[in-house]
Amino acid sequence: MLDTLDASGERMTLLYATPDGEPLYASLGFERIGVIRQHQSNDFRVPDIALPPHEWIRPMRDDMPALVDLGSRACGMDRAAAFAALARVAKGIVVERDGAPAGFAFMRVFGRGHAIGLVVVPTPLHAQALIVHWLAANEGRFTRIDTADDRVLSPWLDTLGLRCVDAGVRMSRRAMPP
Predict the structure, then answer these.
(1) Per-residue model confidence as pLDDT tens digits over 86-136
(2) Which CA distances in Å does 95 have to 27, 51, 157, 162?
(3) Is 131 exposed, middle or buried (0-12, 13-18, 19+ CB in 10 A)?
(4) Does a structural domain hold residue 28?
(5) Is residue 173 assigned to a domain?
(6) For residue 17, is it within any domain?
(7) What DSSP character marks residue 164?
(8) Is the model more confident about 72 or about 142?
(9) Taking the complete model, does pTM exceed 0.70, yes or no?
């Protein structure tokens, strides 16, 4: 691991650590920047979520350049390679606003079921609408979603029956993500 960190030079490095692993990563120069919460269940409810007028959810088409732009701006890093790899193993949906993508979400086979994510959206309402779309498509089957949003999404997921079963520590080295 030290060779990998040395090879990264001055680049920002992000990771998710277990609470037990946090002291080790802190000794290597990583700083705690948040928490990621793992929600999962096969017994969840699917509420109705209405998007504002002139917005709708549709399958991904030839949207990748616009989605890479949205995702890269959201995290402050070029995400082209990561999104291309994700698109090979996941299905995607888009929130369309005025003829252009405003947000998106993927769902893929993962572990003993499916995982929803990555979700990139302008508001929590958009996140909820995309998540509900995937939950409806996967009703009755094991589904997992990880979120860093403690204020809106994590409590909302709990109310749907997707209980928080674990948490990890988000850490950064050399720089802070935007």
Answers:
(1) 989 999 999 999 999 999 999 999 999 999 999 999 999 999 999 999 999
(2) 42, 9, 20, 23
(3) buried
(4) no
(5) no
(6) no
(7) E
(8) 142
(9) yes
